[in-house]
């Protein structure tokens, strides 16, 4: 198995402030550091690209300084942008406040990434073997969700589609969410998002209901539980909770994006989903020991990390695949 990751999501400029704790209402804090970085969907794309998957971006970037910044960041990572800049607006931004306990709080302002049309997406051609990804952010925007849902439903049946609902899942209209879930080959979400979709329950019950009631054509679902690892249920009913790795986290921003990008990359190279999950857990564990949302490790770093634990993840040989 091989193919590109075609990312149809949103990339934004992050303004990252590091503070000891969130300020109380009506008060002010002085940040210990500040950085302007590429964020949003950029983090997931970087994770896949650094783990040996060809990545292209089919979302919308703006025509102002934010869009220019993002195009340059994508080019630096070897990620081609397929669509022309929006003639009407710049890309959006997000303020990320990272506290001393490594947790993060966000305030975002949508821009060009929140508006899509079929004409804008015309340059995005999906080839056999490609993997298509989108997140809940683009489906939450009034100016992009209907077009994107139509485009996703029109994908060839053999095209693998991966969906991450993200923390803004409650902003996605339920009919749109239902359509996208029904087309998903893989759903990757955290526990809170799984509950939003499928109701209360433990991870095993949630995963079962997600497949039975919402992602009926999926190969499987992944429910991420941060440092605890992730729980996977496959379409044939096979399940496994894949343990995470104990590390000293300094910044959890982008950990979920890193997990999804590494997971898809491993799957595209033929790894079994349980092996791909272990690989993704390692990638996310490494990323939280580094500052920045786009702190995903490369394949060599992940394999070295796993080898210390007595296990590495590689694609099957041709003989094994036969």
TrEMBL record:
Signal peptide: none annotated. InterPro entries: Carboh/pur_kinase_PfkB_CS (IPR002173), PfkB_dom (IPR011611), Ribokinase-like (IPR029056). Residues 5-295 form the Carbohydrate kinase PfkB domain. Keywords: Kinase, Transferase. One of its GO terms (molecular function) is kinase activity. Gene3D superfamilies: 3.40.1190.20. This is PfkB family carbohydrate kinase. It comes from Mesorhizobium opportunistum.
